[in-house]
Amino acid sequence: MSFISRSGKALQDIIIDNISTAVLMVDHKLSILYINAAGEMMLDISSKRAVGQSLRHIINVSDAFFNRLETTYSNNHPYSEHELSVGLFSGKELTIDYSVTPIMLPGLSSQLLLEFTSIDRHLRIAHEENLLAQHQATRSLIRGMAHEIKNPLGGLRGAAQLLENELPEPSLKEYTDIIIGEADRLRNLVDRMIGPNNLPKPRLINVHEVIERVRQLVSAEVDNAINLKRDYDPSLPLIIADPDQLIQAILNITRNAILALNDHGTISFRTRPRRQYTIGSHVYRLVLEIQIIDDGPGIAEDLIENIFYPMISGRPDGSGIGLSISQGLINQHKGLIECQSEPGNTVFTILLPLENGLENINGDTQ
Question: Which CATH class is domain 203-360?
Answer without folding.
Answer: alpha beta
